Give the backbone structure.
Amino acid sequence: MILTVTPNPSLDRTYEVPALMRGEVLRATCDRMDPGGKGVNVSRAVAAAGHRTLAVLPLGGAPGALVAELLGAEGIEVAPVPVTGQTRSNIAVAEPDGTLTKINATGPELTAAESEALLTAVRAHSADASWIACCGSLPRGLGPQWYAALAARAHEAGARIALDTSGPSLLAALRERPDVVKPNVEELAEAVERPLKTVGQALRAAEELRGRGARAVLASLGADGQLLVADSGTYFGHARVEAVRSNVGAGDASLAGFLAAGGEGPGALAAAVAHGAAAVQLPGSVMPTPDDLDPAGVTVTADIPLDRVLTQPAEYAR
């Protein structure tokens, strides 16, 4: 069972439009509503792959109730932590060429009691978990040390921690030696405080995170693929993609595939790449099922293309 923790979940509405024109009245060609948040998406992808998952998350107000209802409809077990604030609602506008415009709400501010209740809920449900995936930004009221505290408690209980966050929250948690961290290339650049323009530079940045405490790094390089840097070796994976429809939740689908495949080694990296490639070809934040995957289209190698220039280099501005 994979337990996910989403401290700042959302209700996500995605609209597909022929073109985004500022100041105009637009008619959507397609729209959908999904439960959102990085950990929520990991649970949705794990469930879509046929595995058991439990989502621990703070929920408040009518949007929070709808998030729980939508998750239940997807067969996902939910352990809600009631909060007084209202769960945020986010909007995404997708264009035919794959361009995505997102408007993310701030979300509620959690009290000290609600913060502790969330940690307690994770501990209470962690006994059966093969992995605990801690994902996303922290809401107001939770300091950057919160994920570090969660990782410490989880490790005390014998659970493995996968962490997908960024900025001070990521750096603070490294001292608790998370079993895997999953930054994208922009988050890597922020963590090492320099731009990353090649696969080799991204690899060195991932190695630095390992040096600071991460036991393994699963780094997303966008259209260029993914890197896995761990004790078992360093691997590079990429996949063919026919057309990008929406990249919402693609990184979360990748992490779900990685964890569901055991969370280590080239086989798990291949699963991560396959899930991410499938997710970007689906609408909104729809998570891929086994029928959507194309394992034959995935290549994983220990021969890292160090000089390969990234399609979307990561800049860094101090």
